[in-house]
Amino acid sequence: MVTVLVTGGAGFIGSNFIRFMLDSHKTYSIINLDQLTYAGNLENLRDIETNANYSFFRGNICDRSLVERIVSENNIDYIVNFAAESHVDRSIKDPEIFIKSNVLGTQVLLDAAQKYNLNKFVQISTDEVYGSLGSTGYFTENTPLSPNSPYSASKASADLLVRAYYKTFGLNVNITRCSNNYGPYQFPEKLIPLMIYNAINGKKIPVYGDGLNIRDWLHVNDHCSAIDSVLQNGKIGEVYNIGGNNEKTNIDIVKTIIKILSEKLPERDISESLISFIEDRKGHDRRYAIDATKIDQELGWKPQIVFEDGIRMTVDWYLNNKHWLNSIINEDYRNYYQKVYGGL
Ligand code: NAD
Ligand code: DAU
């Protein structure tokens, strides 16, 4: 039995990853450590919570004694660290928690991985650590780190710690840097689920600036298979970019969602008149685009889901899981919305 400690497994990508791993590796045991912040939701794992190969601990990755206890008592072979504050807009309003969870928390996990001599530590990082591109070029693994938001600065800091534990202590590590994910169970503060929720509820769709910022979208299942490839076969100490070669402007994404929803829900008045251009995000990165040649050539990974199918599947998932979406829209969420979008 191989035992993997997944941190942040009750969030969007972590929960999809746990489901992916339980499906793909019947001899793996998965332990999920998650603090259940506003973004952590055990509903994301309801269908697998009774799987004999899965167990859950609620706790903070900054809690050293808890982390050491879990690692030492459960014969952990690997740590895959998803746990993080993940939303750029929240990092602009309140940076401190990003440093605590994303930087200090990563260090606690690295210390435990080193102390108990684990096989490998995989850090789930992001393309945002590279900063922003102009209208041409791609992020490669050699692009200098140049983060622009408190969120991306905290992720870049964690990456440097992971690198340092490899160089200084010889810890077996990999870092993955993926572009924007979409798919089921994404918290409706991020562009795609927020736009879907607002459109089906007849609310304004807030687009920052001119709507021409570009993101490189990848279905979350493709991200999960890429992480699995890195876990199994990634060369020790290496960074792997992950992306889908799928650049879209934000306004294109928004218009695509409106088009799909207006076809599926013709009785509702879902149209581009819902779009509202609002003041730009501070420090808004203009363009992200990943060069994923390395993971393709070294590990044979390629994305499988084309965006046109993936976005339709995703819209369907949110329409079929309205109870999941609605259960998130509580007082905390409304306060957050008010803080970021004012009276919109
Ligand atoms: P998310 O916000 O949906 O989930 C984060 C999870 O981490 C939540 O379950 C939360 O409860 C947990 N968590 C937060 N702080 C914690 C702490 N101190 N201790 C224990 N658990 C804690 O995030 P996501 O979108 O699933 O992203 C997961 C990871 O992938 C993050 O590290 C993020 O930087 C990275 N990433 C995200 C994307 C994306 O498009 N969403 C792309 C590339 C990389
Ligand atoms: O690139 C990977 C990153 O992608 C991850 O590291 C982050 O965890 C994840 O949140 C995501 O960051 P972004 O800032 O790119 O994602 P977000 O969904 O917040 O925004 C996508 C784009 O849409 C961005 O250009 C800002 C814009 N946007 C977003 C929101 C929430 C709007 O125009 N209006 C909005 O209301």
Could you please describe the fold and organization of this structure?
This protein is α/β, with parallel strands linked by helices. It has 2 domains: 2-182 and 217-242, NAD(P)-binding Rossmann-like Domain (Rossmann fold, 3-Layer(aba) Sandwich); 191-214 and 247-283 and 306-335, UDP-galactose 4-epimerase, domain 1 (Alpha-Beta Complex). The chain is built from 12 helices and 13 strands. It has helices spanning 12-24, 64-73, 88-93, 96-115, 150-169, 191-200, 220-233, 250-264, 293-299, 307-320, 322-328, 331-341; strands spanning 2-7, 28-34, 54-58, 78-81, 120-126, 173-178, 181-182, 205-208, 214-216, 218-219, 239-242, 247-249, 275-278. The strands form 4 sheets. It has a 7-stranded parallel β-sheet with strand order 3-2-1-4-5-6-11, with helices on both faces. It is globular. Bound molecules: nicotinamide-adenine-dinucleotide and 2'deoxy-thymidine-5'-diphospho-alpha-D-glucose.
